[in-house]
Write a structure and sequence with these properties.
Keywords: Membrane, Transmembrane, Transmembrane helix. The chain crosses the membrane at residues 21-44, 56-76, 211-233, 308-326, 338-363, 383-407, 427-449. This is Glycosyltransferase 2-like domain-containing protein. By secondary structure, the protein is α/β, with parallel strands linked by helices. The chain has one domain (30-467). It has helices spanning 2-10, 26-37, 39-42, 53-85, 92-95, 115-121, 132-145, 175-185, 188-191, 211-228, 243-248, 259-271, 294-322, 328-368, 381-409, 423-431, 433-454, and strands spanning 101-107, 158-164, 169-170, 194-197, 200-201, 239-242, 276-279, 284-286. Helix 4 packs across helix 10. The protein is globular and about 85 Å long.
Amino acid sequence: MSKSLKRVQTYVGRIAKPANFYIRWNLLFTFLIFLFISSAIWVPCIPAVNDFALEIVTIVCIILHLLWAIAVFNALRYTYRLRKFAHHKIDLDKLNTDFVTVKHVVGLCIYKEPQALIMDTIDSIARKCSNFNYASRQAIKILRRDKDYPLGRKDKKVEVLVTTGDCDSIFGERYFDALEEDYWKISPEQRTYTVWQSPLFYCMNLDKSPFFVRVTGLLRAFFMIGYLIPWNINTMSIFSLTLKLLEDGEYTHPSYQMDDIIALIRWSLAVRRRCVIRAIPVATLSGPTSGKNYCDEWYEWARQIRRWTIGAAEVFHYFAIKFFRLPAMVSFSFACKFVFYYGFLLCIASVYTIVAPSVTPAMLEAIKGKEGVKGLVYPNGTVFMIVMLSFLGLQYFWFFCVFLVSYLCQPVFPNKTKDKTGIIRNIFHFIMTWPTITMYCVVELVAFLEVTVRGKAVCSHNASKKDNLVAPVSNVPDRFEV
């Protein structure tokens, strides 16, 4: 404890390490992405494999659909937990047999949201910013100096849990009770490498959003409980951990813009093993990107995706540098899951399922003639196209599951929030899900090219607008005037 105190007291800022602004590991990430997409062109050109080029495309599509099936299973499993926990009675006194006092430190950093939005959500705990590292150090430093606060005293049994959130987020009513309950359920050793994540749903004023914003919000919530939490890929926006793990990991990274994505890597390095993400079965709401008009909505939507993509590329670079500091299986497993999620699923899956079914037969016809468009299983290109169209139908079944999960989770949303989108608009948004995720992939591809050409100079954290999340002005006096 004294070592941690000494480290905080002597901290005067971070001395940036020398970095190459262009030759970075995210180039490998970009190479893998474009190598995979272009395989629809170069695979038919290789004599040794062009006889079963159509089967290769089919196998890739089958793998992608199997992964979607896994996501649906995980999402429905977590949906069941959320609904079941709503009727669960929490008895912390029964679990806390050692009579330990649990204290909570909450990050309340703010970006540039409208003041009315900040006022509207201040009661539920609000937003984090790039200065969370500094704010955390200063908060703990102040607490340790407070003689009335038993932090660090050997004669007092105190456990400190740190939670960070976003200003446009509304926590569930029992978030901290659920956090403490799960904290007591696991062993003291498990607590040293556990990070708690609440399922995040982008459902604030979602019924007023354009189709591409709403669909993206539904997909992000689905992917969180389908991949991010069960696969231990990364935390997102709102999460909690012990003070000891936060201090051992030297808080969040002060110079990487996507500190929530990089956090799990940073803390895994601190404990020299894989950190585990445990779901808090309480839904949390967050606001989607928004603008003042339709064009502004398009711009903010694309800008946010660009920022996420560039941030993911930077995190990949950070992880590649730290690869050998973790156990081999931990590093290899994380690399596979990270590349799959941020590279293949979010970036190229939709584009590949469009390009490959049309380009691969065209390349075979150009090389072998019209009779050459066949494989070991496919007698001709027509059968191949029928199979590909069947995969598209299956893809819409997975999209239906995305909408279903959101609907099933609504009864447990904070403040009884509902997505009031009408039936007609719901059908339209459902149809537009595939074009939306395809546009999402295109923006990501452009962002990867941009970070490849411009290097680290393009890496920044410009917050998206949240103007449309502001509630209408009320005639009732503000709570601060009472």
